[in-house]
């Protein structure tokens, strides 16, 4: 029988110490393909999560995974984190806790996977200006050097571009 890592036991112990002392436990996690977190909150391949009783619902700290539900921007999300991806657990109030080695790079997102995620994200591009709009802009720019400032208040106007 393979030996179970001490890491999940240490995570549970620090979590319990934080809650017993009235601190807010946070975990820092390396995000990879096996991690289920809201990607818009991931920075530099990592995310920090509040795992306090007040911030989570159904927290389960098992030997292989940490899972719970939490609200992000008012929307409930199911979170799943492999224990091997946790790089730190600490109390927000004083920073005391424990850091762990980062998972080996084989499990982290490869450069190709990161590029694929970036490519699948929506991209903004400029829309060419039509001839009538160009002429109107040219005639306005030839007029006064002191254009009329935009009017404040009133109803906003929606311009439909086809």
UniProtKB/TrEMBL annotation:
<dbReference type="GO" id="GO:0045732">
    <property type="term" value="P:positive regulation of protein catabolic process"/>
</dbReference>
<feature type="region of interest" description="Disordered">
    <location>
        <begin position="100"/>
        <end position="162"/>
    </location>
</feature>
<protein>
    <submittedName>
        <fullName>Stringent starvation protein B</fullName>
    </submittedName>
</protein>
<dbReference type="Pfam" id="PF04386">
    <property type="entry name" value="SspB"/>
</dbReference>
<dbReference type="GO" id="GO:0005840">
    <property type="term" value="C:ribosome"/>
</dbReference>
<dbReference type="GO" id="GO:0005829">
    <property type="term" value="C:cytosol"/>
</dbReference>
<feature type="compositionally biased region" description="Basic and acidic residues">
    <location>
        <begin position="131"/>
        <end position="151"/>
    </location>
</feature>
<dbReference type="InterPro" id="IPR036760">
    <property type="entry name" value="SspB-like_sf"/>
</dbReference>
<dbReference type="InterPro" id="IPR007481">
    <property type="entry name" value="SspB"/>
</dbReference>
